[in-house]
Each structure stands twice: as C-alpha cells, then as structure tokens.
Amino acid sequence: MNHASMLQEVKVEDAVGMVLAHDLTQIIPGEFKGRLFRKGHVVREEDIPALLSIGKEHIYTMHLEPGYLHEDEAALRMAKAFAGRNVELSEPHEGKINLKAAVDGIVKIDRTFVDRVNSIPFTVLATLKTNTPVQKQQKIAGTRVIPLIMEEESVLQIESLAVQWRQTEKSSDLSGNPVWVKPFRPLKVGLITTGSEVFGGRIQDKFGPVVKRKVEQFGSEIIEQRLSPDDSDKIVQEIRYFLDRKADLILLTGGMSVDPDDRTPGAIQRAGARTVSYGTPMLPGSMLMMAYIGQTPVMGLPGCVMHDPYTSFDVLLPRICAGEEIVREDITMLGYGGLHGC
Ligand SMILES: Nc1nc2c(c(=O)[nH]1)N[C@H]1C(S)=C(S)[C@@H](COP(=O)(O)OP(=O)(O)OC[C@H]3O[C@@H](n4cnc5c(N)ncnc54)[C@H](O)[C@@H]3O)O[C@H]1N2
Ligand code: MOO
Q1: Hey, whose CA ends up nearest to atom 3 of ligand 2?
Q2: How far is it, in rounded angstroms, from Cα 21 to Cα 38?
C-alpha cells in the first residue's frame, strides 16, 4: 500500500494553522489513555509543547485520492455493515468504533463472520463471545482499521460479506445482522429448595438468596420459593405446583449428586421431564441437570452453584432468560474452555 503521496509530513513548529488529519493519543501509564487532540483540530502555537511531549515532532496533512478512506470513515462503514438489532455505534475515536448494547440481554455474534472480517488485512473486529450476558450501554465489540488511510476495497469486501451473511443466514431474521443483542424477557421462576436438613430447620437456607440474585440480574423474578425434604414424591408435587402456576422456569437446588439421599434428578424425570442432559461438561457445575417438561425449562442445580461464582448455571441461565431453548449440543460444547475451578 503506498499512501506516501497522500500524506505530507510537517514539523510541528511549522504546523501552526494546519488541520490535524487524525486523533492524537496520549498515554500516561496508570493515569490516562485517550485522545489529546481531535481530528480536525487547527494547530495553535500553544499546542506545540503538548505535541512534543507526546513524542510528535511531525504531523500529517492528508489529501485523500479516490478509492481511499480516512481511518475513521473506514471504521464507521465497517461497523455499520454488521451492527444489527439493539446495537448502538459510538463516534469514531482514534480510528475505532465501539459497538454497544442498547438493551440488557445476550450478545449474538456469528463467529464465522468475525473470523472472515479479521482475515481481511488491516481490519480488526474484536468482540465478546456469543451468548455473553450484557447490560445496556456495555461494549460488545470494537472495530478498528490499522492504517491511517485505508483502501476502500477492504471496506467493500466487509460490506459484501455482510450482504452475503444476510442472504444465507435463514435463522437470523430477528437480528438483521451478524452482531446483535437479544433482549431478556421477564420470566416467572419457581424455586424448589430440596434437602431434609434445610426443610427440617437443621441448617439455614443459603441457596435461595444466591439463585434470587442471579435470576434478578437477568430481569426475571422468583415468584415463590418452596422447601422440600429429600423425598421424591414431595419433590414431584412441588414441580407440579409450579407447572400449575405457569412458571416460565423451574429451578431445584440440592440433592443432585450420587448419595442415597440425592433424589432431585430422579424426581425431575418422574415429573415427566425430557432430559437434555444430566452431567454438564463444566467444572464447577458438572452435576447440573437441564430438562424440559413440555416447553417449560427445569434445571437441577448442584451445591456448587451456592458458592462458586461461575458455574454451568451462569452460562445457561442468561440464554434461558433471553428465551432460548437449550439443546444437547449447547451442553456438549461447554467442555472446551469449561474448566473454571472446582
Ligand atoms: N462421589 C461423588 N461425590 C460427589 C460428586 C460426584 O460426582 N461423586 N459430585 C460433587 C459435586 S460436583 C457437587 S456440586 C456436589 C453436589 O451436591 P448436591 O447438589 O448433591 O448437594 P447436596 O448433597 O444436597 O448438598 C451439599 C452440601 O450443601 C449443603 N446444602 C444443600 N442445599 C443447601 C441450602 N439450600 N442451604 C445451605 N446449604 C445447603 C448440604 O447440607 C451439604 O452440606 O456433590 C459432590 N460430591
Ligand atoms: O456440579 Mo459440582 O456441580 O461440578 O461442583
């Protein structure tokens, strides 16, 4: 790429009155990183010491030829090409556009598309992983072009990748584009706390508050918490209680392991559940059960959810709160990268 003819170097001392062609960045480790001068700023006599102090002895003046784009314009066109529903774009800043969530939800980001964009030289698209829960205004992706002057051809390639994606991606009719945010829906959640030691008052329930906080974090609510001893019939009754009340999600805690008193997985099955998986390849959270009774998701939560900050429950819950059905493949793919402790 030969951009030399479009860029002219001028010593800062001779640049008074000239227009900056790009943002200029200052970094003071531990204190500040950001734009010191904005693109378009007219250099003044008093700017010269500041420019020299960030190591700029020269500035560029720029004369773009047809077929070339300024870094800011290229980044903006890239971002507009793939930003879909519930995504907002920031102003260009140092050749970068941030994509932000416009709502609370989970990000949906097509990995194949991201890889294709990044295989085009001098373009950068860095994103969160798909299905990550995000809050409104949280950054979900950033685009950047590496050179100050970008060949328009590269941007056209990205724009046409996005067009192809829209033509071929049948399942994404909700999204419009490969990077988007699926909003949470407010679910009514029934919570069944099993364990004769809790039911009988021998120990105080520590599970309920944890589950309540997690559920509320994604915009849903626990409509009621019911206690049950380690008795299969009683657990089945409590599941039916919440089915009758049209709970959108039923969560059961405790009794998920291999002891004779661990009745929860069997009771979930006896209540008529279709098991997606019992045994989840993630540590912690391996004893989690994912099941459905009709359309209603039912989850058995093992003891670790009570004390480990990030388990398989934290991966699956935001997706369920966004209205997604969990299938077997969603579970099997958790193992790779699924070691988080335990
Ligand atoms: N031989 C094996 N042992 C264990 C396995 C295994 O595969 N083979 N898995 C381990 C894993 S992983 C976990 S996680 C736990 C599973 O625990 P459970 O869900 O069966 O939990 P419980 O046995 O019901 O309780 C464990 C512990 O936590 C206390 N507890 C339970 N509920 C509450 C509550 N609501 N509030 C406060 N405390 C609670 C309970 O009293 C026990 O002390 O199993 C491993 N073992
Ligand atoms: O389920 Mo345990 O559920 O891996 O700590």
Answers
A1: 285
A2: 9
* Residues 20, 37 contacting (CB under 8 angstroms): yes
Length of the chain: 342
The CA-atom distances, in angstroms, between 48 and each of 21, 34, 38, 56, 61 are: 16, 18, 15, 9, 16
pLDDT digit string, tens, across residues 69-117: 989 999 999 999 999 999 999 998 888 999 999 999 999 999 999 999 9
Is there a contact between 125 and 54 (Cβ–Cβ < 8 Å)? no
Count Cβ atoms below 10 Å from residue 184 Cβ, excluding itself.
20
Alpha carbon 127 to chain centroid distance?
8
* Pocket lined around ligand 1, Cβ cut-off 6 Å: 193, 195, 197-198, 203, 205-207, 253-259, 262, 286-287, 302-304
H/E stretch holding 75 reads helix 71-82
187 Cα: distance to centroid of ligand 2 (angstroms):
25
pLDDT in tens, 294-326: 999 999 999 999 999 999 999 999 999 999 999
Please state the separation of Cα 308 from the chain's center in Å.
20
Q: What is the DSSP letter of 68?
A: E
What pTM did the predictor assign? 0.90
C-alpha to C-alpha distance for 222 and 206, rounded to whole angstroms: 15
Map out the domains of the chain with their CATH numbers.
Answer: 3-62 (3.90.105), 68-183 (3.90.1170.30), 188-332 (3.40.980.10)
Query: Quick one: residue 70, left, alpha or beta (phi over 0 = left, psi -120 to 50 = alpha)?
Result: beta
